[in-house]
Amino acid sequence: ENNKKICTRKKILESLVENSSETVVSFSYLKSRHLQEMKQFVDKTGGTVTDEITECSVLVTDKIRCTMKILSAIARGCPIVNANWLKHSYTVQMFQDVDDFLIVDKDAERKYKFQLKESLAKAKTKRLLDGYNVLVTPSVKPGPQEMKVIISCAGGNYVLNWTNTQYSKELIVTCDKDRNRWKPAWDNDFAKIIDSDTLVTSIIRQKLTI
């Protein structure tokens, strides 16, 4: 009987270790004096740390900001949690349910008229830009390289130039400064044209406004 208990306990521990190894954590906007401690918590709980938002399974931050990491996380349906998730996980030596520690940012919710949990659920079901070719003009903020990551995380195909073949789902993300670049597309009505604020809001809400 004791052997059975030992075997059962061993299986449970092995399962916990296996689950922990699947937890890849990234950080955004944590104060530097806390960041190193948080990274140690991840390591000692059995997870790994990455700076690549495309590789993480959880993003730890303090509030919703329109940064590349946070927008990309929402676009992927990647949980965005507060630091208490990591502290509790470290204390019990097991990564806790992320749903219990999702960021609650009332100011951002009012500003963008969204609920984080709902947006993450939508993104997991279907990526917002699935099937879209998306071109970003040079003066857009966030810049084209950051936009490339965000768009890819949202399921879009980031393109540098239009091909001769036209698709039914084509977007140009632009601004007034680049008017000379997108006006021909506007005149010929072969692509939907939006500004970066519209794309950002669409990703946060997980509802494309075009």
Automatic annotation (TrEMBL):
CDD domains named among the record's database cross-references: BRCT_MDC1_rpt1, BRCT_PAXIP1_rpt6_like
Gene3D superfamilies per the UniProt record, alphabetical: BRCT domain
Localization annotation: Nucleus
Annotated GO biological process: DNA repair
InterPro entries per record: BRCT_dom, BRCT_dom_sf, DDR_Transcriptional_Reg
Keywords carried by this UniProt record: DNA damage, DNA repair, Nucleus, Phosphoprotein
Entry GO terms, CC: nucleus
Domain BRCT: 12-103
Stored Pfam families: BRCT_2, RTT107_BRCT_5
Superkingdom of the organism of origin: Eukaryota
SUPFAM superfamilies linked: BRCT domain
Name of the protein in its database record: Mediator of DNA damage checkpoint protein 1
Organism the protein comes from: Schizaphis graminum
